[in-house]
Amino acid sequence: MSAAPTGETAHFRALESLYAAAPINRLFESRLEIAEAGLARIHFEVDARVHHAAGAAHGTLYFKMLDDAAFYAANSLVSDTFLLTTAFNLLLTAPIRAGRLVAEGRWVSGRRRVLVADARLIDPAGEEIARGTGTFMRSRFALSSLPGYAVPAA
């Protein structure tokens, strides 16, 4: 039996648990992976359920996945409080109709009050189809008080 993760790794696993527990993610089948501090990936599948009238993924999906990836990249550096998105800018460069995609978020700057992170959306061929940059600030919500933020037990 392996020991429960501790420190930074335990925080990453707890954030992944928080993501999985968020009610919004019942609408979007996706999985968060935090590999290291400042780096988060959202793995998800695009199909006709998220299409707009012209048969490609709606911008809502682009925003959600890019915002989540950037948010969790930033929150991976903050272990006491939940961050809030204060602004997010998008650049959508190509439509996607179907396939497994990855939104990859990376922390850019800031650690105290405001953090900046960006994200890119990668299609099944490895091409970038969208990019976003967000600013995130500390909230009054302690991570430990949120349902779903479960630090793995020893």
TrEMBL record:
InterPro entries named among the record's database cross-references: HotDog_dom_sf (IPR029069), PAAI_dom (IPR003736), Thioestr_dom (IPR006683)
Pfam families per the UniProt record, alphabetical: 4HBT
Gene3D superfamilies with a match to the protein in the record: Hotdog Thioesterase
Organism: Sphingomonas morindae
Protein name: PaaI family thioesterase
Keyword terms: Hydrolase
Positions of the Thioesterase domain: 55-129
Top-level taxon of the source organism: Bacteria
